[in-house]
From TrEMBL:
InterPro entries reported for this sequence: ARM-type_fold (IPR016024), IFRD (IPR039777), Interferon-rel_develop_reg_C (IPR006921), Interferon-rel_develop_reg_N (IPR007701)
Domain Interferon-related developmental regulator C-terminal: residue ranges: 383-433
Interferon-related developmental regulator N-terminal domain residues: 28-338
Annotated signal sequence range: none
Organism: Lupinus angustifolius
Name of the protein in question: Interferon-related developmental regulator N-terminal domain-containing protein
């Protein structure tokens, strides 16, 4: 009862927040005590929340940016605390276009904070609707405006939220690998702009580099059918390697995870295959050999860097917890390079545990967890899209629906560090999803790779 009362108080205070900020804001209607007694408590709480969401949506039309900021904060909180399927079904288009109105250049003079909140709200909306026509509409409508806002140098404080938004909408609503790679290129240009007469190179800050590398890695984790552009991969790996020498620990950690993922998805192995196929010594066939040799040298350098970071002594003012996190991560990366073992991680979700056993799973889970914040547990328990992404079925849902659980063979394949079995596991799960009737895929279509093709 205490928790429910506090929820009611938060609804009432939020309504007062909108009213007090602007005289033209919508006001909440009062409910007579006799009416409250006749409505079940859970229904009343849902009714209160629906009313609050409607009111917040109306407040997005207000002139004051501060009013719109508060409205977006309220909407994000509501999407984190519950799966807002009914609200989305009724107000999907309205909410999307209000968010875009704050992001794109137009009559609204949005603050950087408002743009960041609007971008985060779009990401919440995409995760709520899951794969399908609505997710596709979000991607198609939002990606251009997000790209334009990222290219604006007015205030970098909005950029991390815009990067996360771009990552989420591509993850959920992107249909093919070209779209994913385009979004990754947009991210990369934030810290590596294409210089021209009207572009001034600005040294990116450590938080900005971390945000770009994390979002880029998140999308890279969905790509398995790599395009072998040796120059791009050499540049990317070289740059990530330089980040391992930076002073900022968050930059080193983001770069380390990205490099582990790059090697897990088999960049060097693919070049090795091409180099072995070169036989008559023509100039075109020598290039794969040169790329393979260069990448092998880069890998050796990265391995040495990771070994050093795994045993780094604490510097002045270094937080022990952060230092331990770095040591543990780079110890895992070193073991992966030396023995082929990917890290196994168990994440508590209510009364359940979600097991991951690869870099791409860990990166996806950590990114989603960071994006949802306090709403992570709720979404993992009730969000069907995330259940599919992580092949996760909460016990409560399993007991009520008697849905499929992984067999003993699947579990062994899932946990095995052997790269061949990891590939087989990925193929198995992808084919299971493909055969499931009535599901729309979004990014899953990108990941289907048939080694026999």
């Amino acid at each position: 009862m205490g928790k429910r009362n506090s929820q009611r108080k938060s609804v009432a205070s939020a309504s007062a927040m909108f009213d007090s900020d602007d005289d033209s804001s919508a006001t909440s209607s009062s409910t007579a005590p006799s009416d409250l007694m006749s409505i079940p408590e859970t229904e009343q709480l849902q009714s209160d929340q629906d009313s609050l969401l409607d009111q917040a949506l109306d407040s997005l039309d207000e002139k004051r940016s501060s009013t719109r900021e508060k409205a977006f904060s309220s909407i994000i909180e509501a999407f984190n605390s519950n799966m807002q399927h009914q609200f989305v079904e009724k107000k999907f288009a309205t909410l999307l276009h209000q968010c875009l109105a704050s992001i794109k250049k137009g009559p609204k003079k949005a603050s950087s904070k408002e743009i960041a909140l609007a971008a985060h709200a779009i990401g919440c909306l995409a995760l709520t609707v899951g794969c399908g026509d609505n997710a596709r509409e979000i991607f198609e409508e939002a990606v251009r405006h997000v790209e334009e806002s990222l290219a604006s140098n007015s205030d970098v404080s909005k950029i991390p939220s815009l990067l996360e938004c771009l990552a989420i909408i591509t993850f959920v609503g992107g249909n093919d690998q070209e779209e994913t790679e385009r979004s990754m290129d947009i991210m990369w240009r934030v810290i590596h702009p294409k210089l021209g007469s009207n572009v001034v190179a600005v040294k990116p800050s450590a938080p900005l580099i971390t945000a770009v590398v994390s979002a880029w890695s998140f999308l890279l984790s969905t790509v398995s059918n790599l395009k072998l552009n040796s120059k791009n991969w050499q540049n990317s790996i070289s740059y990530l390697s330089t980040l391992l020498d930076k002073e900022d620990r968050s930059v080193r950690i983001a770069a380390g995870e990205a490099l582990a993922l790059v090697f897990e998805i088999g960049v060097i192995d693919k070049y090795s295959s091409e180099s072995r196929s070169a036989s008559d010594g023509t100039q075109e066939e020598i290039k794969p050999q040169e790329s393979y040799i260069f990448l092998q040298g880069l890998k050796g350098k990265v391995i040495n860097q990771c070994k050093n970071l795994a045993v780094e002594a604490g510097g002045k003012g270094s937080a022990k917890k952060d230092l331990n996190s770095q040591r543990n991560l780079f110890r895992d990366i070193s073991d992966f390079f030396e023995y082929g073992y990917s890290p196994e991680m168990s994440t508590k979700i209510g009364g359940d545990s979600l097991q991951t056993s690869s870099w791409f799973q860990m990166i996806q889970l950590n990114f989603i967890k960071h994006f949802l914040g306090g709403g992570f547990t709720k979404h993992m328990q009730e969000n069907e899209f995330l259940h599919d992404v992580f092949d996760f079925t909460p016990k409560k849902k399993y007991l009520s629906n008697n849905e499929h659980r992984m067999s003993g063979l699947e579990k062994r394949m899932f946990k095995s560090p052997n790269s061949v079995l990891n590939k087989a596991r990925t193929q198995l799960l992808d084919k299971q999803r493909l055969l499931t009737e009535g599901r729309k895929f979004g990014h899953y279509a990108v990941n289907m790779v048939d080694d026999e093709a």
